[in-house]
Amino acid sequence: TKSIKVATDATWPPMEMVDANKKIVGYDIDFLNAVAKEAGVAVEFKNTAWDGIFAGLDSGQYDAIISSVTITDERKAKYDFTDAYTSIGQILIVPKTDKTSKTIADLKGKKVGSQIGTTGTMEVKKVAGVESKTYDEVGLAFEDMASGRIDGVVCDEPVAAHFALQKKEYKDKFKIVGKAFTKEGYGIVVKKGNKELVNLLNKGIKAVKAKKIDTKIHTKWVK
Amino acid sequence: MINKQSTHTPIEVGDGAAIPHKDDSGLFTAWRIAFFGAIILCLFLAFGRSEQYLAIFKFVPDGILVTFKVTIGAILLSIVFGLIAGLGRISSNRLINGTASLYVEVIRGIPLLVQLFYIYYALGRFIRIPDILSAIIAMAFCYGAYMAEIFRAGIQSIPKGQIEAALSLGMSRRQAMQQVILPQAFKVVLPPIGNEFIALLKDSSLVSILAVADLLRRGREYASETFNYFETYTVIALIYLIMTLFFSKLISLMEEKLNDGH
Amino acid sequence: MINKQSTHTPIEVGDGAAIPHKDDSGLFTAWRIAFFGAIILCLFLAFGRSEQYLAIFKFVPDGILVTFKVTIGAILLSIVFGLIAGLGRISSNRLINGTASLYVEVIRGIPLLVQLFYIYYALGRFIRIPDILSAIIAMAFCYGAYMAEIFRAGIQSIPKGQIEAALSLGMSRRQAMQQVILPQAFKVVLPPIGNEFIALLKDSSLVSILAVADLLRRGREYASETFNYFETYTVIALIYLIMTLFFSKLISLMEEKLNDGH
Amino acid sequence: MTATSRPMIEVTGVSKFFGSFQALKDISFTVTDGEKVVIIGPSGSGKSTILRSINCLESIDRGKIIVDGMDVSDPTTDICKVREEVGMVFQSFNLFPHKTVLENLTLAQTVVRKRSKSEAEDIAMELLHKVNITEKASAYPAKLSGGQQQRVAIARSLAMNPKAILFDEPTSALDPEMIGEVLDVMKTLALEGMTMVVVTHEMGFAREVADRVIFMDHGSIVEEGTPEHFFTAPNHERAKLFLSQIL
Amino acid sequence: MTATSRPMIEVTGVSKFFGSFQALKDISFTVTDGEKVVIIGPSGSGKSTILRSINCLESIDRGKIIVDGMDVSDPTTDICKVREEVGMVFQSFNLFPHKTVLENLTLAQTVVRKRSKSEAEDIAMELLHKVNITEKASAYPAKLSGGQQQRVAIARSLAMNPKAILFDEPTSALDPEMIGEVLDVMKTLALEGMTMVVVTHEMGFAREVADRVIFMDHGSIVEEGTPEHFFTAPNHERAKLFLSQIL
Ligand SMILES: Nc1ncnc2c1ncn2[C@@H]1O[C@H](COP(=O)(O)OP(=O)(O)OP(=O)(O)O)[C@@H](O)[C@H]1O
Ligand SMILES: Nc1ncnc2c1ncn2[C@@H]1O[C@H](COP(=O)(O)OP(=O)(O)OP(=O)(O)O)[C@@H](O)[C@H]1O
Ligand SMILES: [Mg+2]
Ligand SMILES: [Mg+2]
Predict the structure, then answer these.
(1) What is the predicted pLDDT for the residue at A170?
(2) What global pTM score does this model have?
(3) Which helix (H) or strand (E) holds C240?
(4) Domain for residue C182, yes or no?
(5) Is the pLDDT assigned to residue E189 strictly greater than 90?
(6) ipTM of this model?
(7) Is C1 on the interface with D (CB under 8 A)?
C-alpha cells in the first residue's frame, strides 16, 4: 500500500498532542487514521512546530498536514485542501474577573493572545485597537493570561474547551465568553497541484463521514 | 625552543560578533564587504523587482525598536546585577561570596532559552509585570552572571598596591573601591562589556519565544501568514547582521579612542 | 607604578558554563553546591511528595539523548568547518582568506536562532535533509565560525620558527602544517574547544524551536499537554544544569591532565 | 634618642603567621615621638610585614600594636582613624594612575579629612613645592619618572598630616640617579622632626638620619642599637655577615 | 679556496625590500662546493635575510640565486627540492617540541625522503652519536639544554644529507658554557668537507674555520676576503669599527 508522511503540531490538545508515552494522539490523528484505512494508504505522523509547518510542506519533508488547519482563502491560494472534515469556530476566553467583555471588540486597548499563524491571530488582527500577541504554543498564551500579561485568548473552540475545562487552575480563573464567532472548516493540506492525494483523501473522508466514525471520534476527544 | 608557548595560552574568542581590529586586515575587509554588502542587498531587495520584500521591510520596524529596548534595558540592568555579583565574588564574607559564586555557576550552567522560559513564566506567577520588562529582567539576570565575571576579573586586574595605598591614606574600603579601584577597573571592563553588548543584541532574539514582539517575532508572524519563509528570514538575518556589524564597528572605534587617551 | 596594567588587558569570560579551576576556590565550592544540590533536588522531586515530577522525569529521557546527539554531532562537524575556515583565515590566497573572513564575520553577526530558522526553513526549500541532521548542520555551520577563530589563534600561537624549520627540511607547506603545526596547535585549542562544547550543549536547546525532540522540546510538549509549566521547566533547568556542570568538571580535569603532561 | 619620650608606636610581642609559616616572631619595639628608626635585614626577614602590621594592612596573630594611644589589634578600634595618623610610602609608589598628581594629593584630603576642594589644593600645592615638583601638578603619574612619582607619593602621604610615616624600601624600585632626590626629601622630613620608620638598604641614609637601627632576620629582631654601634661593632654574627655583603 | 671550484650557491645582484625598506642591496657572492663562508656584520645589516633568501624563506625582489644548479628565484623551480639540498640551523634551534629527539630526526626523512622508519632511525642514531647525544634520543626537546638542542638541530639537518648547511647565529642563544660544544660539532663538519655558510659573532671560529669572510652593513657587502686579511687589515672604516667593538 501507498504510504504518506503527515505533519502535525502536537501542541494543540485535544486535536493533536503527545501522550505520556510520547505518542502523537488526538482527534486529528484518529480521524486521519480512519480516513487512511478507508482510502487504503498507510500514514506516518511527524511532529512539527506550527511555525514552519507549511515551509516543510513546500520543501517536501512530508506529503500532507493535518493539524487543525482552517481552510482560508489565503491558504488556498498557496496550498490545496481536502474537503472540510469538521467545522468549528474561533472563541474568546477571558479571565473571570472580566465581567463586561463579550467579543474581541470589547477588549480595545488591551492585549489578546493567540498561537502564531492561526486563524485566531487573523481574527484578532482584524479588530482595530486590540493589540495582538502571538505565541509558539497556545498553552503559553494561557500561561501569560494567568500571569495577567494579556487580557484574552482566541483559539479554536475545542481547544478552548479543553484548556478552560481540564486544568483546575484555568477553570477557576478563566471563562469562555459567548459562542464561536466564526464558522470554519478544518482541512487536510497538501502541496499545490497534488490532485491525486487530495482525491484519495476526499474519498476517505466521505467514507468516514458516511460510516459516522467521525462522531465517535468527536465524542471520544471533545466530549 | 625552551618552550615559550605554554599549553595553556588563553585564546580569546568572544561570543559577540567579530569586532574588527585594525591589525586583522582580513576581518577588516570582511567587515566592509559584509556591512556594505548587506545594506546594498537590503536596498536592492526593498526597491528591486518584487513587492514582497518591501512588504516585509514595512512590517518589521517596530520589532527593531523592541529589540533595541530589550537589548539596552538588559545590558544596563545586567551591569547592575553584574557589579553586585562581581563585588560579591571578591568579598571575603563567605556567605556573600558563596551566594555570588553560586549565582554565577548556576546561571551559566543553564541554557538562556530555558532560563527565559523559567523566569518569564515562573516570575509571572508571583509578580505582575509587563512582558517586555519581564523579558528584560530575565535577560539581565542571565547576563549578570557573565558580567559578574567581567567585573571580578576587571577589579582583580588592578594591582593590590592601589587599594593598599588608598587604605593607608585613611580611606574606608568602600571609599577606596569607589574612588580608586572602580574607576580604573571601569576602563579595563569596557571592551569585554562591548563584546557582551553585541552578544546580547543577538541573544535578544530569544525573547521572541516569549511572545515579545521583537524583530524575529515580527518576522515569524509575517512568515506564518504569508508563507514567504525564505524571503522573510533573509530580511531578518540581514537586519540583524547590519545592526551587529554596525555596533561592533562602533565598539572597535571606542576602544581605539580609549587606548589613544592617557 | 609605571602602569603595568594596560588598558587593554584581555578579560576572558567564556560563553560556556564557568569551568571551575582549582585556583578559584569560590567557584570550586559553588560548583559542588550547585552540582550535588541539583542532583539531590532532582531525587527529592522525583521521589518526593508528588507524582507529577516523576512523570516529567519519565517523559524526557529520550530528549536528553537527542540533545547529546545534536551537541556531539554539531561539535564534531563544527570542528571540521572551523578547521577549514581557520586555515582559510591564515591563508595568503586573498580569495580564500576573504571568503573565510567573510564567513566568520557574517555568521557571528547573525543570531544563532535566526540562522537556525534560516537554514532549517528557508534552505529546506532547496535541499531535503532529515530534521535532526539539518539542525546539526545549522548549529555546526554557526559554531564553525567561532571554531575558525579558535583554530586561527591556536595556529598563530605556534612560533614562526616551527614552520620555517619544517620547510627548511624540505617539507611542503601541507606536510609542515600536518606534521608540525597542527599537532602543536591541537593542544592549545583544546581548552577553548571545551568551552565551546559547553556553550553548544546549552545552545542545542534552540533546536527545540524547530520541533527537534530534544530535552527542551520534550519538556515543552509535556507542559503543553499537562499545563504544568512551572514544574516542567524546573526539571528541565535542573537536568541541563547537571549536564553542563558535569561536563565543565570533566573538561577542567582534562585540562589539568594536559598541563601535567610533558 | 631625640625629642620627647612619648611613645608613638608601641609593638609588643607581635607574631604573625602566613598559613603555617611564621613571618614575625615575638617582635617588640617602641618608636617615640619624633624618633627615626631604620629597619634593615635580608629579604624575607619580615621587614615589610611589620610595617604593614603597624598600618593594619596585615592582621597580627599574637601581641599588641599601639599607635598614638590607639590599640590597632583591638577589633573595636576604628582602623581608618589609625591610618589617618600614620602615613605609608611604598616601594612601588602606588600613585593613582587615573588621577593627576594634584588629584592624587587632594583625594584623601577631601574624602577622608573632609577639607574643601580649594583648601585641599592649597595644601597640595604647598607640599608639591616642598618635594620640588610643582610643575607636574596637572600631569598624570605615568608621565613622571620613578623618582618624581615617589616624591609625589611622599607629598600625598604628608597631605594627611600624619604623626608618623612608614617607608617600605622607598628607593629600591628607582634607577640609581633618582635615589638621591628621594632621600633628600626624606632627610628634610627627618630634620623637621617627623616620626619615621624606614625599611631601606641605603646604609648612608641610615647612618646619617637614624636614631636607632633595628636588624631583623627570619622574623625576629636580632640586634638593635645606635647607627654607630651597629655599623662599627655589631654583636651578632648574622648582622656582621649581612653588613659585609651589603656594604 | 679549498676543494673543487664547482659553484654550490651563486648569489647575483640580489635586492630585497620589506615595504619601502631595502634590507638587501645588490648582493653578489658565490660559495663553491666544500667552501666555508662566514658572514659577519652589525645587527640589522641583512645577514639573516640573505641566508633566508637562499633557503627561500624570503622571496627576493631583484637578482638571482642559484643553488646546486637550481634557480631559486624562478617560480617554476620546486622549492622543496632546493630546501632538501640545503640545510638550515636557526638561532632558536626550532626543534619540534611535540616530538622526541629521535622523532625530530626521523620526521623529514620519512615524510620527505620517503625512507623507511627503521632506516631513518638508524641514520638518526648514527647522527646523534656524531653530535654526541645518543642518550637523549627518546627525550623531548624541553628536557634538553640549549647546547644539546642546537646539536640535535644540526643532526636533524644532516639527516637530510644536504649538500650545504646555512647557520644563522647558531650559538647566540646559548649560555657561554654551551657555545663550545656546538662550535666543536661545526668544526668537525667543516673538516669533513661540508659546504657551510655561517652567520656568527664567534670570531675565533671564523678565523679557524672560514675560507672566506664576508662583512655586511646596511644591506650591502662592504668587504670580503680571507680571515687573515679581514681580521688583521680590513680596508673599510666600518669593518674596522665593527671589529674594534666586537673583539
Ligand atoms: N601574603 C603573604 N602570604 C604568604 N607569605 C607571605 C605573604 N607576605 C609575606 N609573606 C612571607 O613572609 C615573609 C616575610 O615577608 P616580608 O615581605 O615581610 O619580607 P621583607 O623583609 O620585607 O623582604 P624584602 O626585603 O624581600 O621585601 C617572607 O618569607 C614572605 O614570603
Ligand atoms: N619580516 C620583516 N619585515 C620587515 N622588516 C624586516 C623583516 N625581517 C627583517 N627586517 C628588517 O630587515 C633588516 C635586516 O634584517 P636581518 O634580520 O637580515 O638582520 P641581521 O643582520 O640578521 O641582524 P641580527 O644580527 O639582529 O640578526 C632589519 O632592519 C630588519 O628590521
Ligand atoms: Mg619588603
Ligand atoms: Mg639575524
Answers:
(1) 84
(2) 0.83
(3) helix C229-260
(4) yes
(5) yes
(6) 0.81
(7) yes
